[in-house]
Protein backbone atom coordinates (compact mmCIF):
# COMPACT_ATOMS: atom_id res chain seq x y z
CA UNK A 1 0.00 0.00 0.00
CA UNK A 2 2.81 2.39 0.93
CA UNK A 3 4.59 1.51 -2.33
CA UNK A 4 1.49 2.39 -4.36
CA UNK A 5 1.02 5.64 -2.44
CA UNK A 6 4.63 6.65 -3.09
CA UNK A 7 4.07 6.38 -6.85
CA UNK A 8 1.07 8.72 -6.86
CA UNK A 9 1.53 12.36 -7.80
CA UNK A 10 0.14 15.08 -5.44
CA UNK A 11 -2.89 15.72 -7.74
CA UNK A 12 -3.63 11.97 -7.78
CA UNK A 13 -3.41 11.74 -3.98
CA UNK A 14 -5.80 14.69 -3.63
CA UNK A 15 -8.26 13.17 -6.11
CA UNK A 16 -8.24 9.68 -4.61
CA UNK A 17 -8.26 11.09 -1.08
CA UNK A 18 -11.49 12.97 -1.72
CA UNK A 19 -12.98 9.87 -3.36
CA UNK A 20 -12.11 7.77 -0.31
CA UNK A 21 -13.78 10.27 2.03
CA UNK A 22 -16.88 10.33 -0.17
CA UNK A 23 -17.31 6.56 -0.25
CA UNK A 24 -16.67 6.17 3.49
CA UNK A 25 -19.25 8.91 4.11
CA UNK A 26 -21.75 7.25 1.76
CA UNK A 27 -21.44 3.89 3.55
CA UNK A 28 -21.98 5.58 6.93
CA UNK A 29 -25.03 7.46 5.61
CA UNK A 30 -26.37 4.16 4.29
CA UNK A 31 -26.49 2.75 7.82
CA UNK A 32 -29.88 2.79 9.61
CA UNK A 33 -28.40 4.86 12.48
CA UNK A 34 -27.81 7.71 10.02
CA UNK A 35 -31.43 7.80 8.84
CA UNK A 36 -34.65 8.92 10.46
CA UNK A 37 -36.97 6.21 11.78
CA UNK A 38 -38.97 4.66 8.95
CA UNK A 39 -36.75 6.18 6.24
CA UNK A 40 -34.83 4.00 3.79
CA UNK A 41 -32.23 5.66 1.53
CA UNK A 42 -30.67 3.68 -1.32
CA UNK A 43 -26.91 3.72 -1.84
CA UNK A 44 -27.03 6.01 -4.89
CA UNK A 45 -28.89 8.73 -2.95
CA UNK A 46 -26.51 8.30 0.01
CA UNK A 47 -23.55 8.60 -2.36
CA UNK A 48 -25.03 11.70 -3.98
CA UNK A 49 -25.47 13.31 -0.56
CA UNK A 50 -21.90 12.39 0.44
CA UNK A 51 -20.51 13.91 -2.77
CA UNK A 52 -22.58 17.06 -2.27
CA UNK A 53 -21.38 17.44 1.33
CA UNK A 54 -17.70 16.75 0.62
CA UNK A 55 -17.84 18.99 -2.44
CA UNK A 56 -19.53 21.60 -0.19
CA UNK A 57 -22.30 22.06 -2.75
CA UNK A 58 -25.71 21.58 -1.13
CA UNK A 59 -27.60 19.95 -4.00
CA UNK A 60 -29.77 17.20 -2.53
CA UNK A 61 -32.06 14.49 -3.85
CA UNK A 62 -33.64 13.99 -0.40
CA UNK A 63 -34.79 16.40 2.31
CA UNK A 64 -31.88 16.79 4.75
CA UNK A 65 -33.82 17.28 8.01
CA UNK A 66 -36.55 14.76 7.20
CA UNK A 67 -34.17 12.05 5.94
CA UNK A 68 -31.07 12.07 8.11
CA UNK A 69 -30.99 11.50 11.87
CA UNK A 70 -28.97 13.73 14.16
CA UNK A 71 -26.08 11.29 13.77
CA UNK A 72 -26.42 11.38 9.98
CA UNK A 73 -26.49 15.18 10.00
CA UNK A 74 -23.33 15.27 12.14
CA UNK A 75 -21.68 13.00 9.56
CA UNK A 76 -22.68 15.50 6.88
CA UNK A 77 -21.21 18.37 8.93
CA UNK A 78 -17.92 16.48 9.31
CA UNK A 79 -17.78 15.90 5.55
CA UNK A 80 -18.57 19.58 4.94
CA UNK A 81 -15.72 20.57 7.27
CA UNK A 82 -13.30 18.20 5.54
CA UNK A 83 -14.48 19.36 2.13
CA UNK A 84 -14.14 23.02 3.06
CA UNK A 85 -10.65 22.85 4.55
CA UNK A 86 -9.39 19.97 2.40
CA UNK A 87 -8.56 16.47 3.58
CA UNK A 88 -4.83 17.17 3.24
CA UNK A 89 -5.19 19.88 5.87
CA UNK A 90 -6.58 17.31 8.30
CA UNK A 91 -3.93 14.77 7.30
CA UNK A 92 -1.17 17.27 8.07
CA UNK A 93 -2.87 18.07 11.40
CA UNK A 94 -2.75 14.36 12.23
CA UNK A 95 0.97 14.35 11.44
CA UNK A 96 1.47 17.31 13.78
CA UNK A 97 -0.56 15.74 16.63
CA UNK A 98 1.39 12.47 16.41
CA UNK A 99 4.70 14.34 16.27
CA UNK A 100 5.68 13.06 12.81
CA UNK A 101 7.72 15.17 10.41
CA UNK A 102 6.25 16.21 7.07
CA UNK A 103 8.23 14.76 4.19
CA UNK A 104 8.58 16.54 0.85
CA UNK A 105 5.67 14.66 -0.74
CA UNK A 106 3.29 15.60 2.09
CA UNK A 107 4.36 19.22 1.79
CA UNK A 108 3.81 19.16 -1.97
CA UNK A 109 0.31 17.73 -1.51
CA UNK A 110 -0.59 20.37 1.06
CA UNK A 111 0.82 23.03 -1.25
CA UNK A 112 -1.36 21.70 -4.09
CA UNK A 113 -4.47 21.56 -1.87
CA UNK A 114 -4.14 25.14 -0.63
CA UNK A 115 -2.75 26.70 -3.83
CA UNK A 116 0.37 27.88 -2.02
CA UNK A 117 3.17 29.56 -3.94
CA UNK A 118 5.94 28.78 -1.45
CA UNK A 119 6.60 25.27 -0.15
CA UNK A 120 8.20 26.70 3.01
CA UNK A 121 4.85 28.24 4.02
CA UNK A 122 3.01 24.91 4.34
CA UNK A 123 3.13 24.32 8.12
CA UNK A 124 2.57 27.93 9.13
CA UNK A 125 -0.32 28.36 6.68
CA UNK A 126 -2.00 25.11 7.78
CA UNK A 127 -1.78 26.18 11.42
CA UNK A 128 -3.26 29.52 10.47
CA UNK A 129 -6.04 27.88 8.40
CA UNK A 130 -7.20 25.79 11.35
CA UNK A 131 -7.02 28.63 13.84
CA UNK A 132 -8.81 31.16 11.65
CA UNK A 133 -11.49 28.68 10.54
CA UNK A 134 -12.23 27.63 14.11
CA UNK A 135 -12.42 31.22 15.37
CA UNK A 136 -14.72 32.40 12.55
CA UNK A 137 -17.10 29.44 12.89
CA UNK A 138 -17.26 29.67 16.69
CA UNK A 139 -17.94 33.42 16.55
CA UNK A 140 -20.62 32.85 13.89
CA UNK A 141 -22.33 30.17 15.98
CA UNK A 142 -22.23 32.29 19.16
CA UNK A 143 -23.74 35.28 17.34
CA UNK A 144 -26.63 33.14 16.06
CA UNK A 145 -27.36 31.57 19.45
CA UNK A 146 -29.75 34.22 20.85
CA UNK A 147 -31.92 34.23 17.72
CA UNK A 148 -32.06 30.46 17.28
CA UNK A 149 -32.53 29.67 20.99
CA UNK A 150 -35.51 32.03 21.09
CA UNK A 151 -36.97 30.24 18.05
CA UNK A 152 -36.13 26.58 18.69
CA UNK A 153 -35.23 26.22 22.36
CA UNK A 154 -31.81 25.73 23.96
CA UNK A 155 -30.77 22.30 22.65
CA UNK A 156 -32.08 22.68 19.12
CA UNK A 157 -30.98 26.30 18.98
CA UNK A 158 -27.36 25.47 19.88
CA UNK A 159 -27.26 22.65 17.32
CA UNK A 160 -28.70 24.77 14.49
CA UNK A 161 -26.34 27.65 15.33
CA UNK A 162 -23.29 25.38 15.04
CA UNK A 163 -24.59 23.59 11.92
CA UNK A 164 -25.53 26.85 10.19
CA UNK A 165 -22.14 28.39 10.98
CA UNK A 166 -20.28 25.38 9.55
CA UNK A 167 -22.47 25.32 6.44
CA UNK A 168 -22.28 29.07 5.80
CA UNK A 169 -18.52 29.39 6.34
CA UNK A 170 -17.95 26.26 4.25
CA UNK A 171 -20.17 27.74 1.53
CA UNK A 172 -21.96 24.39 1.56
CA UNK A 173 -25.57 25.43 0.97
CA UNK A 174 -26.89 22.71 3.31
CA UNK A 175 -29.64 23.67 5.75
CA UNK A 176 -30.75 21.60 8.73
CA UNK A 177 -34.09 23.24 9.50
CA UNK A 178 -37.40 21.37 9.47
CA UNK A 179 -38.80 23.85 6.96
CA UNK A 180 -37.56 25.85 3.95
CA UNK A 181 -34.90 28.38 4.92
CA UNK A 182 -36.97 31.15 3.33
CA UNK A 183 -38.63 31.63 6.77
CA UNK A 184 -35.51 33.67 7.64
CA UNK A 185 -35.96 36.05 4.70
CA UNK A 186 -37.16 38.85 6.96
CA UNK A 187 -34.55 38.28 9.67
CA UNK A 188 -31.77 40.80 8.91
CA UNK A 189 -29.71 39.75 11.93
CA UNK A 190 -29.23 36.16 10.73
CA UNK A 191 -28.86 37.14 7.07
CA UNK A 192 -26.06 39.59 7.86
CA UNK A 193 -24.22 36.94 9.91
CA UNK A 194 -24.59 34.44 7.06
CA UNK A 195 -23.34 36.95 4.50
CA UNK A 196 -20.27 37.67 6.63
CA UNK A 197 -19.55 33.95 7.11
CA UNK A 198 -20.05 33.21 3.41
CA UNK A 199 -17.80 36.10 2.38
CA UNK A 200 -15.13 35.01 4.88
CA UNK A 201 -15.12 31.51 3.40
CA UNK A 202 -15.18 32.66 -0.23
CA UNK A 203 -12.22 35.07 0.03
CA UNK A 204 -9.75 32.30 0.76
CA UNK A 205 -7.29 31.70 3.55
CA UNK A 206 -4.36 33.30 1.74
CA UNK A 207 -6.28 36.56 1.35
CA UNK A 208 -7.19 36.61 5.04
CA UNK A 209 -3.60 35.85 5.97
CA UNK A 210 -2.42 38.78 3.85
CA UNK A 211 -4.98 41.10 5.44
CA UNK A 212 -4.19 40.02 9.00
CA UNK A 213 -0.44 40.49 8.41
CA UNK A 214 -0.88 43.86 6.72
CA UNK A 215 -0.17 45.81 9.90
CA UNK A 216 3.33 44.23 9.96
CA UNK A 217 4.15 43.96 6.27
CA UNK A 218 2.37 47.10 5.06
CA UNK A 219 1.69 45.40 1.74
CA UNK A 220 -0.50 42.68 0.27
CA UNK A 221 0.22 40.28 -2.56
CA UNK A 222 -0.98 40.77 -6.13
CA UNK A 223 -3.23 37.74 -5.63
CA UNK A 224 -4.99 39.48 -2.73
CA UNK A 225 -5.33 42.75 -4.63
CA UNK A 226 -6.95 41.03 -7.62
CA UNK A 227 -9.22 38.85 -5.45
CA UNK A 228 -10.49 41.77 -3.35
CA UNK A 229 -11.00 44.07 -6.32
CA UNK A 230 -12.90 41.51 -8.39
CA UNK A 231 -14.98 40.35 -5.40
CA UNK A 232 -15.86 43.94 -4.52
CA UNK A 233 -16.86 44.80 -8.08
CA UNK A 234 -18.94 41.63 -8.45
CA UNK A 235 -20.84 42.24 -5.21
CA UNK A 236 -21.37 45.94 -5.98
CA UNK A 237 -22.49 45.49 -9.59
CA UNK A 238 -24.71 42.49 -8.91
CA UNK A 239 -26.28 44.28 -5.91
CA UNK A 240 -27.18 47.22 -8.17
CA UNK A 241 -28.55 44.88 -10.85
CA UNK A 242 -30.64 42.90 -8.36
CA UNK A 243 -32.03 46.14 -6.95
CA UNK A 244 -33.31 46.87 -10.45
CA UNK A 245 -34.39 43.42 -11.62
CA UNK A 246 -36.09 42.35 -8.39
CA UNK A 247 -37.75 45.70 -7.69
CA UNK A 248 -38.93 46.40 -11.23
CA UNK A 249 -39.18 43.07 -13.03
CA UNK A 250 -40.08 40.66 -10.22
CA UNK A 251 -42.92 40.40 -7.66
CA UNK A 252 -40.58 41.00 -4.70
CA UNK A 253 -41.27 44.73 -5.01
CA UNK A 254 -44.90 44.18 -4.09
CA UNK A 255 -44.44 41.79 -1.16
CA UNK A 256 -41.84 43.37 1.11
CA UNK A 257 -40.68 46.70 2.51
CA UNK A 258 -37.90 48.76 0.95
CA UNK A 259 -35.45 47.76 3.69
CA UNK A 260 -36.14 44.06 3.18
CA UNK A 261 -35.84 44.42 -0.61
CA UNK A 262 -32.43 46.06 -0.21
CA UNK A 263 -31.30 43.29 2.15
CA UNK A 264 -32.62 40.59 -0.22
CA UNK A 265 -30.74 42.18 -3.13
CA UNK A 266 -27.52 42.30 -1.11
CA UNK A 267 -27.97 38.68 -0.02
CA UNK A 268 -28.50 37.66 -3.65
CA UNK A 269 -25.32 39.53 -4.60
CA UNK A 270 -23.23 37.66 -2.00
CA UNK A 271 -24.64 34.13 -2.00
CA UNK A 272 -24.73 32.87 -5.65
CA UNK A 273 -20.96 32.81 -6.14
CA UNK A 274 -20.44 30.41 -3.28
CA UNK A 275 -23.32 29.12 -1.15
CA UNK A 276 -26.77 28.18 -2.41
CA UNK A 277 -28.76 29.20 0.66
CA UNK A 278 -32.17 29.81 -0.89
CA UNK A 279 -33.42 32.40 1.59
CA UNK A 280 -35.00 34.30 -1.30
CA UNK A 281 -37.02 31.64 -3.21
CA UNK A 282 -35.78 31.30 -6.80
CA UNK A 283 -39.42 31.08 -7.91
CA UNK A 284 -39.79 34.75 -6.88
CA UNK A 285 -36.80 35.91 -8.92
CA UNK A 286 -37.10 37.38 -12.42
CA UNK A 287 -35.60 35.74 -15.52
CA UNK A 288 -32.97 38.48 -15.58
CA UNK A 289 -32.16 37.75 -11.94
CA UNK A 290 -31.75 34.03 -12.70
CA UNK A 291 -29.33 34.94 -15.50
CA UNK A 292 -27.27 37.11 -13.12
CA UNK A 293 -27.19 34.28 -10.56
CA UNK A 294 -26.03 31.84 -13.26
CA UNK A 295 -23.13 34.09 -14.25
CA UNK A 296 -22.14 34.71 -10.62
CA UNK A 297 -22.16 30.97 -9.91
CA UNK A 298 -19.89 30.31 -12.89
CA UNK A 299 -17.33 32.82 -11.59
CA UNK A 300 -17.34 31.47 -8.03
CA UNK A 301 -14.99 32.58 -5.26
CA UNK A 302 -11.25 32.98 -4.76
CA UNK A 303 -8.57 30.27 -5.18
CA UNK A 304 -7.69 28.61 -1.89
CA UNK A 305 -11.18 29.25 -0.54
CA UNK A 306 -14.20 27.05 0.15
CA UNK A 307 -15.88 27.91 -3.16
CA UNK A 308 -15.78 26.63 -6.74
CA UNK A 309 -16.24 28.17 -10.19
CA UNK A 310 -13.51 29.51 -12.46
CA UNK A 311 -12.52 31.86 -9.59
CA UNK A 312 -12.38 35.63 -9.22
CA UNK A 313 -8.69 35.86 -10.12
CA UNK A 314 -9.34 34.10 -13.43
CA UNK A 315 -12.07 36.58 -14.30
CA UNK A 316 -9.88 39.49 -13.20
CA UNK A 317 -6.93 38.39 -15.34
CA UNK A 318 -9.13 37.80 -18.40
CA UNK A 319 -10.82 41.19 -17.98
CA UNK A 320 -7.54 43.04 -17.62
CA UNK A 321 -6.03 41.11 -20.54
CA UNK A 322 -8.99 42.15 -22.70
CA UNK A 323 -8.60 45.81 -21.69
CA UNK A 324 -4.86 45.66 -22.39
CA UNK A 325 -5.52 44.17 -25.84
CA UNK A 326 -8.05 46.92 -26.64
CA UNK A 327 -5.40 49.49 -25.74
CA UNK A 328 -2.82 47.77 -27.91
CA UNK A 329 -0.72 46.74 -24.89
CA UNK A 330 1.10 43.41 -24.83
CA UNK A 331 1.61 43.29 -21.06
CA UNK A 332 -1.10 43.07 -18.40
CA UNK A 333 -0.30 45.31 -15.43
CA UNK A 334 -2.15 45.79 -12.15
CA UNK A 335 -1.18 47.25 -8.79
CA UNK A 336 2.37 48.00 -9.85
CA UNK A 337 2.95 44.40 -10.97
CA UNK A 338 2.85 42.50 -14.27
CA UNK A 339 1.05 39.20 -14.89
CA UNK A 340 3.29 36.56 -16.43
CA UNK A 341 2.20 35.28 -19.88
CA UNK A 342 2.00 31.78 -18.37
CA UNK A 343 -0.63 32.90 -15.84
CA UNK A 344 -2.68 34.66 -18.53
CA UNK A 345 -2.63 31.54 -20.73
CA UNK A 346 -3.59 29.38 -17.73
CA UNK A 347 -6.56 31.64 -16.99
CA UNK A 348 -7.70 31.49 -20.62
CA UNK A 349 -7.35 27.71 -20.69
CA UNK A 350 -9.33 27.29 -17.46
CA UNK A 351 -12.16 29.53 -18.69
CA UNK A 352 -12.41 27.83 -22.10
CA UNK A 353 -12.25 24.28 -20.71
CA UNK A 354 -14.85 25.15 -18.05
CA UNK A 355 -17.25 26.56 -20.66
CA UNK A 356 -16.79 23.49 -22.89
CA UNK A 357 -17.24 21.15 -19.91
CA UNK A 358 -20.44 22.84 -18.71
CA UNK A 359 -21.83 22.94 -22.26
CA UNK A 360 -21.05 19.26 -22.89
CA UNK A 361 -22.63 18.11 -19.61
CA UNK A 362 -25.70 20.30 -20.19
CA UNK A 363 -26.14 18.85 -23.67
CA UNK A 364 -25.85 15.32 -22.29
CA UNK A 365 -28.49 15.95 -19.61
CA UNK A 366 -30.94 17.43 -22.13
CA UNK A 367 -30.99 13.95 -23.67
CA UNK A 368 -31.41 11.98 -20.44
CA UNK A 369 -33.53 14.30 -18.27
CA UNK A 370 -37.06 15.67 -18.64
CA UNK A 371 -37.53 19.43 -18.90
CA UNK A 372 -40.92 20.52 -17.45
CA UNK A 373 -43.35 22.50 -19.54
CA UNK A 374 -42.70 26.20 -19.32
CA UNK A 375 -38.98 25.65 -18.73
CA UNK A 376 -36.19 25.84 -21.28
CA UNK A 377 -32.55 24.90 -21.62
CA UNK A 378 -31.70 27.16 -18.67
CA UNK A 379 -33.43 24.61 -16.39
CA UNK A 380 -30.54 22.20 -16.99
CA UNK A 381 -27.69 24.68 -17.57
CA UNK A 382 -28.47 26.36 -14.23
CA UNK A 383 -28.22 23.03 -12.39
CA UNK A 384 -24.97 22.03 -14.11
CA UNK A 385 -23.29 25.37 -13.34
CA UNK A 386 -24.56 25.16 -9.76
CA UNK A 387 -22.93 21.73 -9.41
CA UNK A 388 -19.72 22.79 -11.17
CA UNK A 389 -19.36 25.90 -9.02
CA UNK A 390 -20.34 23.91 -5.88
CA UNK A 391 -23.01 26.53 -5.14
CA UNK A 392 -26.05 24.34 -4.54
CA UNK A 393 -28.86 26.44 -6.01
CA UNK A 394 -31.52 24.43 -7.83
CA UNK A 395 -34.45 25.25 -10.08
CA UNK A 396 -35.94 21.86 -9.19
CA UNK A 397 -34.09 19.41 -11.43
CA UNK A 398 -31.92 17.63 -8.84
CA UNK A 399 -34.70 15.81 -6.88
CA UNK A 400 -36.09 14.49 -10.19
CA UNK A 401 -32.83 13.32 -11.77
CA UNK A 402 -32.64 9.89 -13.34
CA UNK A 403 -30.03 7.51 -11.91
CA UNK A 404 -27.76 8.40 -14.83
CA UNK A 405 -28.36 12.09 -14.20
CA UNK A 406 -27.44 11.69 -10.53
CA UNK A 407 -24.13 10.07 -11.49
CA UNK A 408 -23.38 12.87 -13.97
CA UNK A 409 -24.12 15.63 -11.43
CA UNK A 410 -22.00 13.79 -8.84
CA UNK A 411 -19.06 13.81 -11.24
CA UNK A 412 -19.59 17.51 -11.95
CA UNK A 413 -19.71 18.37 -8.22
CA UNK A 414 -16.56 16.33 -7.57
CA UNK A 415 -14.65 18.01 -10.41
CA UNK A 416 -15.93 21.39 -9.27
CA UNK A 417 -14.54 20.86 -5.76
CA UNK A 418 -11.25 19.14 -6.54
CA UNK A 419 -10.63 21.40 -9.52
CA UNK A 420 -10.40 20.85 -13.26
CA UNK A 421 -6.61 21.20 -13.19
CA UNK A 422 -6.18 18.68 -10.39
CA UNK A 423 -8.45 16.13 -12.06
CA UNK A 424 -6.78 16.58 -15.47
CA UNK A 425 -3.30 16.31 -13.96
CA UNK A 426 -4.26 13.23 -11.93
CA UNK A 427 -6.07 11.36 -14.73
CA UNK A 428 -3.87 12.36 -17.66
CA UNK A 429 -0.64 12.69 -15.62
CA UNK A 430 0.18 15.94 -17.44
CA UNK A 431 3.65 17.37 -16.94
CA UNK A 432 5.33 20.52 -18.18
CA UNK A 433 7.26 19.59 -21.30
CA UNK A 434 8.90 22.64 -22.83
CA UNK A 435 9.45 22.25 -26.57
CA UNK A 436 13.05 22.22 -27.78
CA UNK A 437 12.07 23.93 -31.04
CA UNK A 438 9.62 26.53 -32.35
CA UNK A 439 7.68 26.75 -35.62
CA UNK A 440 7.58 30.01 -37.60
CA UNK A 441 4.67 32.34 -36.81
CA UNK A 442 1.85 33.15 -39.22
CA UNK A 443 -1.12 35.48 -38.81
CA UNK A 444 -4.73 34.21 -38.57
CA UNK A 445 -7.73 36.46 -39.22
CA UNK A 446 -9.84 36.95 -36.06
CA UNK A 447 -13.42 38.25 -35.94
Q: Can you walk me through this structure?
A:
With 447 residues, the chain is mainly alpha-helical. It has one domain. It is 65% helix and 1% strand. It is built from 20 helices and two strands. The chain has a two-stranded antiparallel ribbon. The longest helix has 31 residues, at 122-152. The mean pLDDT is 83.
Keywords:
20 helices; 447 residues; 2 strands; mainly alpha
> How would you classify the helix and strand content by structural class?
mainly alpha
Average pLDDT works out at: 83
Number of structurally distinct domains = 1
Biggest sheet architecture: 2 strands, antiparallel
Chart the SSEs and their pairings.
Elements: H1 2-7, H2 10-30, H3 43-54, H4 64-67, H5 70-85, H6 87-97, H7 104-114, H8 122-152, H9 154-169, H10 188-203, H11 205-212, H12 214-217, H13 222-249, H14 258-270, H15 287-299, H16 312-326, E1 333-334, E2 337-338, H17 341-368, H18 378-388, H19 403-418, H20 420-428
Antiparallel strand pairs: 1-2
Helix pairs in contact: 2-3, 2-5, 2-7, 2-20, 3-5, 3-19, 5-9, 8-9, 8-10, 9-10, 10-14, 11-13, 13-14, 13-15, 13-16, 15-18, 16-17, 17-18, 18-19
What is the structure about, briefly put?
This protein has 447 residues and is mainly α. It has helices spanning 2-7, 10-30, 43-54, 64-67, 70-85, 87-97, 104-114, 122-152, 154-169, 188-203, 205-212, 214-217, 222-249, 258-270, 287-299, 312-326, 341-368, 378-388, 403-418, 420-428; strands at residues 333-334, 337-338.
Amino acid sequence: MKKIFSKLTPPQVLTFGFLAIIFVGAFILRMPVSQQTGVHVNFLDALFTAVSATAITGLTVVNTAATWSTFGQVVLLVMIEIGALGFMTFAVLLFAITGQRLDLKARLMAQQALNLRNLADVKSVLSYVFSLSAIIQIVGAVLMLPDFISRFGIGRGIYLSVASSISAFGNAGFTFFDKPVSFLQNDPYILIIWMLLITAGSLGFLVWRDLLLFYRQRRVSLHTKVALNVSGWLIGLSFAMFLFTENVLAPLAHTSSLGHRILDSLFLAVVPRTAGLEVVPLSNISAAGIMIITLLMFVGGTPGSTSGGIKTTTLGILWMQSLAALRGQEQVNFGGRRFSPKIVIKAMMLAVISIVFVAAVSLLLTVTETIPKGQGMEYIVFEVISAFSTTGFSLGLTPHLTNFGEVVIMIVMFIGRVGLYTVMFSVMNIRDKPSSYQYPTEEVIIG
